[in-house]
Design a protein that fits this description.
Length: 172
C-alpha cells in the first residue's frame, strides 16, 4: 500500500497530510515531538494537483476552513494506526466540542479508565492526526496548558482560535 502525502500552509506552520488513498492517516507538523516515520513508498503530491487523493483534498480544504474560522468539526474519513487503547482515547478526543477543553482526568473518566490518566496523556501525545482529532483541547487538571506534540505555542494558538471564533458565534 502506497502512502500519499501533501503539504499545506497553515498559521501554525506547514502541515503534511498523509493518506492511504481512502482515509486520512496522519497530520504532521514541523518539529513535532513524536512523528511516525514516513513509509519509504510515500508519494508526495502538490496540494493543487488535480489528481490529489480525495482524503488529502478534503483534509486540506477542511483545515483551511478551520483556520479561517469557517469550520468547527471535520468529516474526513480517518484511519489512525495505534493500539486498541490509543484508538479508544483518540475516538474520545473527537467528542470534545469545539471551543471546549477537558482535563486528562476527564478524558480518562470518559473512556471508563479513571485511574489511567498517565496512559491517557501518553496516548494523547501520540495522536497521529492532530487538529482534526483535537488533542489540543486536553489541558491539565488545574487549567494549565500541559504537553502538546506540536509545542505549547501551537496549542495556545489553536485554543485561542477556537475561543475567539466561539465568542464571535455567541455574539451574533
Amino acid at each position: 500500500m502506497t502512502t500519499a502525502a501533501t503539504t499545506v500552509p497553515s498559521p501554525i506552520g506547514p502541515l503534511t497530510l498523509l493518506s492511504d488513498g481512502q482515509h486520512l492517516t496522519g497530520v504532521r507538523m514541523e518539529q513535532q515531538r513524536h512523528p511516525a516515520p514516513l513509509p519509504p513508498d510515500t508519494v508526495h503530491h502538490d496540494p493543487d494537483d488535480r489528481s490529489l487523493p480525495a482524503p488529502l483534498a478534503a483534509a486540506a480544504a477542511q483545515l483551511a476552513e478551520y483556520f479561517a474560522g469557517e469550520r468547527t468539526s471535520f468529516d474526513v474519513p480517518l484511519a489512525p494506526h495505534g493500539t486498541p487503547f490509543q484508538l479508544r482515547v483518540w475516538r474520545a478526543l473527537r467528542e470534545i466540542p469545539y471551543g471546549t477543553t477537558w482535563s486528562y482526568g476527564e478524558l480518562a473518566r470518559r473512556i471508563g479508565k479513571p485511574s489511567a490518566v498517565r496512559a491517557v496523556g501518553l496516548a494523547n501525545g501520540r495522536n497521529p492526526i492532530p487538529i482534526i482529532v483535537p488533542c489540543h483541547r486536553v489541558i491539565g487538571a488545574d487549567g494549565s496548558l500541559t504537553g502538546y506534540g506540536g509545542g505549547l505555542d501551537r496549542k495556545r494558538y489553536l485554543l485561542g482560535l477556537e475561543a475567539a471564533e466561539l465568542r464571535l458565534r455567541l455574539e451574533v
